[in-house]
Amino acid sequence: MSAIQLAALARTPEPHTMLRRFLAFDAAGTGANGIAYLIAPAPLGRLLGVDSGLLFTLGLFLTAYAAGVGLLASRPQPPALPVRAVIELNLAWTALSSIALAAWLSPTTTGAVYIPVQALVVAGFAGLQYAALRAVQKS
Q1: How many CA atoms lie within 13 A of 87 on its CB side?
Q2: What is the dihedral of CA 83, 85, 90, 94, to 10 degrees?
Q3: In whole angstroms, what is the distance from residue 69 CA to residue 53 CA?
């Protein structure tokens, strides 16, 4: 992705602002997922064909993770090491989602669509965050 495309997505040419925005979008999406899993694990479990206990546990993790990513996004210049950790955790989530779908989950049709789509969204966040971090390091 070019710097121009990245700046257009972030609606700013300033690398630190770009990085902060991509982290904030990640925190918002992850937080929304986590809260949904916490407040409605049973209906979402039935919809997706995933155990409600697993969804609740994931909700706890995702909510805490989103808070951490949001805190990082609130920093004027997010430090590179924690940003790299977010990128790597996002890539791990993507891989684990794919492995879980193939190896042990038996989702409904909705779940079979939702799980890979959310994994691709998370991978997209990782890619945007990586590109923005590289732009910060070049500036």
Answers
A1: 18
A2: 150
A3: 24
